[in-house]
Write the structure tokens for this entry.
Amino acid sequence: MLSELVSVSSSPPTPTARYGAAMRLRQGWVGTRLGPYRPCDGTYSTYPVDSLPPLPTHRFDGTFG
């Protein structure tokens, strides 16, 4: 019979089972346009993580000011 040839599952397939591999997400940070300093294709764009400027660690003194 046909039911012997087809496996039936009550749970939905996982993304790995459905697509054959895990999904890969783009890495980056999202920002807006800053004139000529940071162009943007739309309201928001994704930029490479390497393009983030270093944080000014001298400003982290434990205060909020």
